[in-house]
Every structure is written in C-alpha cells, then in structure tokens.
Amino acid sequence: MTKIAHHIPDEMLAAYAAGRLPATFEMIVAAHVSMCDACRAALETHEMLGGTLMETAAPAAPLEGDLLERTLAQLDAPVEPDGAARTPPARMGIYPGPVAEALHHGPPRWRAAGGGVRQQILAEDGKSSVRLLYIPGGQAVPDHGHGGTELTMVLQGAFHDETGHFGPGDVEVADESLEHTPIADAGAACICLAATDARLRFRSLLPRLAQPFLRI
Amino acid sequence: MLAVRDNRDRAAFARLFAHFAPRVKGMLMRSGMGAAAAEDVVQDVMLAVWHKAHQFDPARAQVSGWVYRIARNRQVDLARKAGRPLPEEVETETPPEADPGAILGLAQEAGELRAALARLTPDQREVISRAYLGDLTHGEIREETGLPLGTIKSRIRLGLERLRHELKDLRRE
C-alpha cells in the first residue's frame, strides 16, 4: 500500500475520542484510523488524555445501591453481540471494517449519479450524509463548492484536484472556502467514502437543479 | 487490571470497579445523562472491561484511557440508531506480549501528562475537561459560560499546545 499522506485533522480525532463528532464524520475517522497507524496513535493519545481527565477532573458520582453485586453476578453471562464488548467489524476487500458494516458486509448497490459517477448512500440525517462514490478513471466530478464541511477518503484508485493528489487512505478536508474539481486518475475507477455536514453548493446550474434528485 | 486479564481475578475486578465505576458515572452525568441511565451504562462498560480484558495492552494504553474509550463508544452507540462506527482492531497476540520497556515508558509519559494537567491554569483545565468529559460542542460551551468562542478556541489551543509540548514523544509513529 502506498504511504498515506493526507490525515484526519487532530481536532477531529479529539472530537471522535470525546464522542462529540457528527455521525457521518465518525465513519470517515473510523475508516481512516483502520488504515493509518499514525492517526490511531494520535487517537489513543487523546483517549489517554480523556481517561486521565476522567480519573482526576470529573466529579466522581457515588453509586446507588448494589451495582457492584449486580455486575459481579453477570460476569459469566454470555456477551451480547451488539453490546459494549462487541468486536469491531473486519475489513472486506477495499472496504475498511466500519464501511463493510454499513454495507451489511455485502457489495455496494450502485446508483447512477450522472456523468458516469455512481454512488451509494450509507447514511443520511437531515443536513449530513455519508456515501460511497464510484468515479470512472479519468472522469471529473463537477466543479463544486461546499456549504459546510466535506471529508473525502479514497478507498481505491486516486484523484487529484487543485489542492493535491489523494490515494488510498488519504482524506481530503474541504470547507466553504474550497471550490474544486476532483478528477479521478486514469486507469482503475476511483472509489471514495465522502461525508458532508451540509448540502453541497454546485457551481453550474444543471447539477444544482439535479441536486435534490441526486441528494448530493 | 493485569490480575483481571491474566488470572480472571474477581476481587481485582471489584477493586477496578470501585475505582472506575463512580468516575465513569460522573463523566456520563456531566455529559447530560440521568443517574439511573448512567448506572446502566456503567454496568455495560464494566462488564466490557471484564470481557475485553484479554486485549488490554499496558504498552499502548493506561487503564483509564482504555475504560474512557469503552465508555464513550457505549455512550455514542446508544445515541445512534446504527451504532457507532468503530475502527478495526489492530491484530495482536492475546494477551499482548509484555514489553517491559514500552510499558514503563508509557507509564512515565502518563505521569508527565498528569503533571502537565496539574500545571495548567484552572481556566485551561476547565476548558479541556469540557472538551473531553462533556459532550458539548464549542457553540454550547459559549452558551454555558458566556465566553466568546474565539477565547475558548484559543484557550483550548493554548492548553493543548502546552500538553503537546509535554507529550510530543507520546505520539509513537
């Protein structure tokens, strides 16, 4: 695998550790950390800081009643598969574990999104969404700006735009100030995981009209 | 913790419970959970500590950070319909092979982290505590404290910068 050059911003890792990142961005963080040892180490550093604060700064709340006894009584009970001790999902081909889980461990069901681009929406909640994008080799995604923040992580192939070149594992962070035209490298299709926290603001009229239908 | 991991020692688990359960409960209540709901989560978390003990690696984590992660994952899981997206786990031997040098090094760095936190001003410590212990966004911090957002952000940065200076060797790549 090529070396990952574009990482998750540190404040997003801190927000993930502390549980205050929007759900769609959590998917990107979890997918990137699955592939990136540097960001995993940084995330675990934030967890260490959180744990130290929990030990020293949070007011400890006295327990009511017999919680210890009730917990001890359950030590031998079977582990719930969806419970706090659940095992994180494993990688499936090019798809990191958290993406494989969102796909229910099956192949994507691609839908045409115009211009040869295909997509599958994995999760959507009002102003935010996370989706898989399939961009044929050499193909451009229409020039667009962003109403909020968009994170794009490459899973297969590569793309480049005005800001740089992105290969497997790389994450591009785009905000309101970036208007860019991502172009997939020639050759194999580029498959990306893209998360937004606001509807994209497309620059040209036709894609903007198509926006409600494509839900980009 | 290692007695729990290696010997399945229930008395040692009870001691871990006595130490962490009230602290996890305190953190959950600080981020807005009621006492009864928080105790349910505390029970889930401590049971997970028992069941996942074989994965605990003292060369990679302090017990407090490991418990913090399990608690946050559980709390977010319960808040999401589809559960929280979690990173894949690193494949390690179970239990992880003991590496005394790395374990000692991490323990020393954790001590430095505690010392660094103790040296922060009360304001800085409070802002960092909110960021890691509450589940408040920056906007919500502003509402609660009346401090302007810019001040909060720069305080977080100042605090983290100071921590980062103390901890630069902790980021093992």
UniProtKB/TrEMBL annotation, chain B:
Residues 16-84, 116-165 form the RNA polymerase sigma-70 region domain. InterPro entries: RNA_pol_sigma-70-like, RNA_pol_sigma-70_dom, RNA_pol_sigma70_r2, RNA_pol_sigma70_r4, RNA_pol_sigma_r2, RNA_pol_sigma_r3/r4-like, WH-like_DNA-bd_sf. It holds the Pfam family Sigma70_r2. GO terms for biological process: DNA-templated transcription initiation. The keyword Kinase does not apply. Keywords: DNA-binding, Sigma factor, Transcription, Transcription regulation. It comes from the Bacteria. Coiled coil: none annotated. The keyword Lipoprotein does not apply. GO terms for molecular function: DNA binding; sigma factor activity. Transmembrane segments: none annotated. Gene3D superfamilies: 1.10.1740.10, Winged helix-like DNA-binding domain superfamily/Winged helix DNA-binding domain (1.10.10.10). Belongs to the sigma-70 factor family. ECF subfamily. NCBIfam families: sigma70-ECF (TIGR02937). This is ECF RNA polymerase sigma factor RpoE.
